[in-house]
Design brief:
The complex is a heterodimer of chains A (306) and B (286).
Chain A (H helix, E strand, L loop, with lengths): L4 H7 L3 E7 L4 H7 L5 E3 L8 E5 L7 H10 L5 E5 L6 H16 L42 E4 L6 E9 L11 E7 L2 E9 L11 H11 L3 H8 L9 H4 L13 H9 L11 H5 L4 H9 L3 H13 L1
Parallel strand pairs in A: 1-2, 1-3, 3-4
Antiparallel strand pairs in A: 5-6, 6-7, 7-8
Chain B lengths: L1 H22 L3 H8 L11 H20 L2 E3 L2 E2 L6 H21 L4 H32 L4 H6 L6 H4 L3 H12 L24 H25 L10 H22 L5 H27 L1
Antiparallel strand pairs in B: 1-2
Helix pairs in contact in B: 1-3, 1-9, 1-10, 2-9, 3-4, 3-9, 4-5, 5-8, 5-11, 8-9, 9-10
Classes of the chains: A alpha/beta (306), B mainly alpha (286).
Chain lengths: 306, 286
């Protein structure tokens, strides 16, 4: 079957991959997706291939299904469970899957039934009815109620949601229950700690690349992982001074400077709710990215033990 | 004459957008996305979702229509061209907000509000800078502003103007250090829930806006169609292409700080700086 010129052009695009990273595979996946010919999608909507790396614990299967079903069709799920399989081999498999999808293959079906995960408990056409106009809980989501703003003392809507375990800006496996007012984090609770990762995930190169990606320097992050220089302006300066200061570990800006100079960080991180509450979303994500995965894991385990 | 100018505006927009996508290295990516399914969120605001990219494209076209392609020849030779472009800028903020509002999802909405917060303090320096350029011309018309640069381009006469306008341009086209609507920490923000043709259309509209913003910058600071030997439109196209490359490069190579810090920078440093720029330009134009 002949391909249209547009399909031939599409074939030359880097493979859009959304990564669902399991225990122990963060470093492998981050290095893999920095290769030429692959592109890490930041939302499942922008992806065509869902890469599942590692063996997920049973309670992560349902969220995986939800992420999978959000990837637009035609789509493929690709599993990378064999640790001995090299990055080259996986990159080849990804490219083959992409060629198939561009060539008109149907791709995978939904993993989950297309039904809401919670019952409709709203009252009235928009679910807002009930006591005080806001008593309903349509599909398990209560209507936002106002609460005291933690900065200005104004009454603002509070929105509570769970994020993770595959949100690309959070460490893999971490599920947070956050209460937001606008983009200010009022409350943070750890629902699931991140998956354990080997020491390789703490490599300064990978830590700096995570921060660079959040600073809008996708290309620089890839260059750094491939062993080059970031080649970008205003790197350290863009991270606000004093952000995410940890006793004995400096602030996020100093940690970025350390990573870029090749110094790994070993930190005693305070519990995440303490660390994140009161920060704006962008700041909170930058703080999380500035911490080595192993210390985030230790911080959440401390919390569980307590 | 009119038909020629309509053609010039449309062709500049179309080829310019193509060039912008190519400079971004996204031609193949857009081709691939176009063939994919469009996933719909729960209870979206369909009208505004579909209108947002259309508004964005329309505003790019309106902005370009007041730009003179040759000396004295703009499609709409408005005596208040700067006001027309200024209203386009304000409506871009509304458009990007609607783009984030319409999917009915948290990350797009955060992007939308964030952009609205950044948009206002970006528009103020933009207006000061453009009014400063209007002072030597003693007119708000882009045709007159080009005419006033016959001896000396504004980029030299008012050296702060173009650098300040570059920041505005990056914000209006959602690029790199000023892309607070579609940032990585909110999973591409206002675009986070979009797939397939809808994503492509938004990207094309962004590319078209890059052409329009570059055309305004070329007209106001680089003398627009003025230049030796080559005909006016060719000079304008060359200047537009050069500025587009500059904005693409800057978008890729400059880090983006956190929104609250950028707000402080905008209100505390750039706004007073642009006012100072206006005051100095005013004194010099006396």
């Amino acid at each position: 079957m002949g391909m249209s010129p547009l399909a031939r052009l599409a074939l030359r695009a880097p493979v859009p991959v959304f990564a669902a990273i399991g225990p122990g595979r963060q470093a492998d996946v981050e290095r893999l997706l920095a290769r030429r010919g692959l592109r890490r999608a930041l939302t499942p909507r922008d992806a065509a291939v869902l890469l599942l790396a590692g063996d997920l614990p049973p309670d992560a299967m349902e969220p995986l299904g939800r992420v999978h079903d959000q990837v637009p069709r035609p789509r493929r799920i690709l599993r990378w469970t064999d640790r001995t399989e090299t990055g080259d081999a996986v990159a080849d498999r990804l490219a083959t899957a992409w060629r198939g999808l561009c060539g008109g293959e149907d791709g995978d079906d939904d993993l989950q039934p297309d039904a809401p995960s919670n019952a409709w408990r709203g009252v009235g056409p928009h679910g807002q009815g009930g006591t005080g106009m806001m008593g309903g809980t349509p599909y398990g989501r209560p209507m936002a109620m106002t609460g005291l703003d933690i900065r200005d003392g104004l009454q603002l809507d509070r929105y509570t949601a769970r994020l993770g375990p595959f949100a690309p800006m959070l460490p893999p496996g971490l599920v947070l229950e956050l209460t937001l007012q606008g983009d200010v984090i009022c409350d943070a609770g750890v629902v699931c700690p991140p998956f354990a990762q080997p020491a390789d995930a703490d490599a300064p190169v990978l830590c700096s690349a995570r921060m660079l990606a959040l600073l809008g320097l996708e290309d620089a992050a890839r260059r750094v992982i491939r062993g080059g220089r970031p080649g970008a302006l205003w790197l350290r300066g863009a991270v606000p001074r004093g952000l995410g200061r940890i006793e004995g570990g400096g602030d996020a800006r100093e940690r970025l400077a350390g990573y870029l100079a090749g110094t790994p960080a070993a930190l005693a991180v305070p519990p995440l709710p303490e660390l994140l509450s009161g920060l704006e979303w962008a700041e909170a994500m930058l703080v999380l990215a500035s911490l080595p995965p192993s210390s985030i894991l230790r911080a959440t385990r401390l919390r569980e033990a307590a | 004459m009119i038909a020629g100018l309509v053609l010039a505006v449309l062709a500049t927009l179309a080829f310019g957008a193509l060039l912008a996508v190519a400079l971004d290295g996204r031609l193949a990516i857009l081709a691939a996305q176009g063939a994919r399914q469009r996933v719909e969120t729960e209870a979206p605001d369909r009208l505004n979702r579909d209108l947002a990219p259309a508004w964005y494209l329309a505003l790019a076209a309106i902005g370009l229509s007041v730009v003179p392609f040759a000396e004295g020849a703009a499609l709409i030779d408005s005596p208040v061209g700067i006001v027309v472009w200024g209203s386009c800028e304000a409506l871009i903020v509304v458009t990007v907000f609607l783009h984030g509002w319409s999917p009915n999802a948290p990350f797009p909405l955060i992007g939308a509000y964030r952009y609205a917060a950044i948009g206002l303090p970006v528009l103020l320096p933009s207006m000061f800078v453009l009014i400063a350029a209007a002072l030597p011309a003693e007119s708000l018309s882009f045709v007159a502003i080009v005419d006033s640069q016959r001896e000396l381009w504004n980029v030299i006469r008012q050296p702060l103007g173009l650098p300040l306008f570059c920041i505005v341009a990056l914000a209006l086209t959602l690029r790199g250090p000023m892309d607070y609507a579609d940032a990585a920490d909110i999973a591409t923000g206002t675009s986070a829930e979009e797939s397939g043709p809808a994503r492509v259309l938004w990207d094309i509209a962004r590319a078209a806006m890059l052409v329009s913003v570059s055309a305004i910058a070329a007209t106001v600071f680089l003398g627009g169609p003025l230049g030796p030997v080559l005909p006016g439109p060719v000079w304008l196209w060359l200047k537009i292409a050069g500025l587009m490359a500059l904005f693409v490069l800057g978008g890729r190579r400059i880090a983006r700080t956190t929104p609250s810090r950028m707000l402080s920078i905008l209100w505390v440093i750039l706004l007073p700086l642009s006012f100072l720029h206006l005051a100095i330009s005013g004194v010099l134009a006396l």
